[in-house]
Each structure stands twice: as C-alpha cells, then as structure tokens.
Design a protein that fits this description.
single chain; alpha/beta; Beta-Lactamase; Heat Shock Protein 90; 3 domains; 4-stranded antiparallel β-sheet; 49% helix
Amino acid sequence: MCSVVLGGACLGVRNLNRTGETLPPLQKFEQCFYLVAPRELVDDYLRKGVYILTPGWLLRWKEMLDQWGFDRDMAPQFFEESCTGLALVDTGVVSGSLERLKDFARFVKRPWERVTVGLDVLRLHMEKSLLHWKAETCREQRHLAERQSADYAMACELTARMAEIKGEKEAIDDILGLFRMLFAPEILHYTPIVEPVKAHEAAFSEDEGDTRFPLENFYGDHMVLESGRGFLIKVSHREKTLGVVLVDGVAFPQYLSRYINLAMDVGKVCGLAIANARSYEIIKGTEKSLRHEIEERKKAEDARKRMEKEVLKLQKLEAASILAGGIAHDFNNLLGTIMGNINMAQLSIEPLEPVSHTLQEAYKGTLRAAELVKKFLVLSKAGMMSKLAADITTVLRNSVYSALDGFRVERRVSICENLWLVEMDPFQISQALCSVLENAGEAMPFGGAVDIKAENVEFSCKREMGRFSAMKPGKYVKISISDSGPGMESEHLDKIFDAYFSTKPRGAQKGMGMGLTLAYSIIKRHEGYLTVASRPGEGTTVEIHLPALDKAERAR
C-alpha cells in the first residue's frame, strides 16, 4: 500500500510530521486551486482580480472572517478594494455550496459566479503523482540492484583472488579487507576456530580495549547484534566452522538485511579459502618434514660412502705398506752392495777415464733408489716416528725452499703469527710437505705460482666444517698449497692416493706415483687430514689439517 500527499504552497511539512515517522511522497502546487481546476482557468481568474473560493472555505466563511478580524462593515470594504468578484470552484462533493456562495456574496457585496469542475482534474493529478512515485521507486530499486550487483562483483573479484591464497593469515587479512570494503563497519573482528570448539563457545575481543562479545546464543549461521547496526557471521566449509566474523557499526544500517545476505554468500567462499589455506599449510609442513628426512638420509648415505672410500683407501695403504716393508730391507741391502762395488770401481780407475762418468751416473741412480727405499720405509709401519711438540713454521719454510728448488715457479708464502704447536715427527712431516710441493712444481713445467698458507682454524661443530665433515671438532693448524697448473679431471681425484698412480709421464725422476700416497700416509699417522680439490684449468689445492695442542699439552 502506498500514500501520496498533494497540497498547495500553504501545506506545511511540519504539521504532517508530528510523529517523526518517514513522510510519504509529497507534491506541492503554487496554488491549491490547481488541484481541482485547470491551471488556465485559475490563472485567468487571478489576472482579473477574482477571489477564488472552495466549498470547504465557504463552510466556515463566517469563522474565517472572525479569524481575520473583520466586522460587518470592514469585510465588504476589504473585498470591494481587493477583488473584482467572487468565483466558486465547485467539485460537487460538498452540498449547499451554492447557497453559501450567495450568502457570502450578499455579505461582501460582490458579484459572483459558480464554476463546476468535478474531480477529474484531481484524479489526473493523483494518477500523475502515483506514476511519478512509482518511477522514483523503480529508480531507487534499480539503483539498489546496481549497488548490489557492484557489491557482488567486487566480492566475486576479491573472492576469486582468495583461490590463490596459500596462507591462513593472508586469507584472514583478505576476508577482513573484503568485509571492510563492503560494509564500512566501525568494529570488525575475526576469531579463528581451529580446535573442535563450537561457535557459541568462542568469544570476541577488540584489538585495543577489554570489551568482549560473548556468543552464548549464537547457534545459527548469523546473528543480529543488539545495537541493530551489526551482525555475526559464521565462516564455515563442509559443515565445519572455521571462524566467526563480527561486524558492528555499519555505515547504512537500513541495509542490514541485505548486508547479512551478502555476507553469508561471501562467507562460504571465505570458508573455502581458509580451508584451502589450512590444507596447504599441512601439506607444506609434511613436505618440509619429508624433505628434511630425505636430506638427512642423503647426508647419512654420503657419509657412509665417504667412510667406505676412506676404509678402502686405508686398506690400499695397508697393503702397500706391507709390500713396502717386505721388500724395503732386502732392497736396501742390495743397494748397499751395489753402492760399495761402485765406490771400489771408482777408486781403481783414473778420474779422467771414460768409464768414470758412467760409474758416477750409476752412483747417482743408486742414491735416488736409496731415497725411494726411505719412502718405502716411511710408508711401511716399520718407519718409526719420533714425535715432539713443535712449531711447524720452520719445517714448512725449509720444505718450500728445498722441494721447489730447481722449479721455475713463484713461491708465495703466508704464515700467520703465533701459529699453534703440533705434535709431529719433523722429518716425516717435511717429507709429506715436500711430496706435495714437488707435485705442485712438476704440474707447472713452464712456470707458474705456488701459494703456501698456514693458519690456525677451529671447528666447534660438524656444521661449521662444510666439506671437512669427516674431521673431528677441535683446533687445527691448516696448511694450504695451491698451484696454477692445469688441474685434474674429477675421475682422477678418487685415485690420487693410490700407490703408483700418476697423471704425469713416467720417467726416471717423476711420474712414480708415490708422492701423495706417502703424504697421505704420514698425515694419517699424525691423526690429521689431507684433502685435494682440483678442476681442469683452475689448478690444484691441497689442504692439510694437523691437530693443534691445547694449553695443557703445550705446558707439558
């Protein structure tokens, strides 16, 4: 049911709105006579100075004159001066209007006329006003529908983005942003429900302040707040409540019902987004756990393989040492006999005889063979060690100059101050260093550079060791020897500690393949570690770690 109020300029809105309720549509005219009579007729009377009357006014014409303060003499004078005549616009609704017009005309002494208009004009005005009101209502409804469509379009756009969300916090932030954009509330809060807690057992609290919103009576999908300007909405997925959103103090409370319907539709998509986010976090955590387990297994497998290689390497050295120890003594005795006979032969001839040069070369060969026997003896367990606590600086410097003498290489030595002491056999450590340095020199027959560096290092845990994870945590003296030679292929690195393996051409003075085998054996006996790193075209680096003595051992 609809209402329309029609009236003239004298119609007061204040008198109509005494109850404070919303007024119906109001249409006002300049002249109230326009409501019942054609505008042209009314305007023509007004131009002629005719005073227009209505049946309703004539019913109370005496009362109206009294209200105006006119007596019997003043009224005729007033109307005589102000109008040329009287005209009754008669709708036929009030009976007796003609007699009253005649009485009033005699009283004011003015000519009169009666115009019968009926209710057709009024009916047309009412129909026009009603059509206008319907058009306005349609426009408002269309505007409301357009706004609803815009809200749903915006909600769809934002909820579509939620499909890409991978974290629950990000999903909640987007939900709050969406609700804030749609409803512009003064208070907006989201309470997640992770454990099997019912929605009515949860409670809201503002981010700042102690105001709490109990939910004892919240059992449905939504609930209107007591303020009448907000609501609670349940965010759920597959009948499982994931959270509750509190919206209070919306900008337009008259649209609260529409807001709730929109929020319930949006809440379903929000529930899906949060459910997906929680599932993603579970999958991500499981994936992380599996990845960690795989990495740990891979580390254990790598450690096992390194251990197997180390054991195999030690077994090869053990075999080589047994072989070396078995033949070294017998071969040394034979060399003694050969060297003695060469000396006797040299004494029995003149120095200038041709055979003297041949004997001299034979003697040099036996000296080199004797040096090789010494290496065999060191390699074998028969090679006894005489350890003492000492600074390795002097041994390192002497080894550099003796081993690289005769090579056309640049020697760059860097030894840190206050190098820690190590317990070592100086002779055997010197042999190990010389073997590594000679290999570096032989790798650069046309010249190059050898960098020798000694420093103190300390490992407190396995994680700090990196590729030296096979070592024990502790303090070490680290010696690095790097050359600028051609480097080695990766397949050669696993064989460099094998006895008699060499990447150089074999000959009388080089390519015997005993250098690194001997060095590795000596460093192992000193409870140290020797590693080699090399790439083709980038040279080779040998790193030696020897256990450093602690303060108590140094004091002894």
